Amino acid sequence: MFYQVRPALLDAWLGQFNGDATKPVVLDVREKWECQVASVAPSDQFELLCIPMGEITSRLNELDPDRPVACLCHHGARSMSVAAYLAREGFESVANITGGIAAWAVERDPSVPQY
To answer: 62, 104, 111, 115 - which has most CB atoms within 10 Å?
Structure first.
């Protein structure tokens, strides 16, 4: 199972992991060119990691199943697929950032370009 979290409510989801030894990961599963066009700003609440959806299975060893992961894409469909995959692979705390970077730009950071 994984959670659906709107960008505006992500801080609340991340907050449940305050005090953990490692920060949660915001996993951007968009293509490299998409991340170059628009990306989230670094935060002290999470680590940003970009792994395109098509590379998740071959790079799964780069992710810690005990570390919280919130998946992000353009509108939320690819990230939802990756979140479901991670949950099936035994990841403990997984969320899909619904609405993706498009909603992030509207709800959290209007400086993020829309594309």
So the answer is: 104
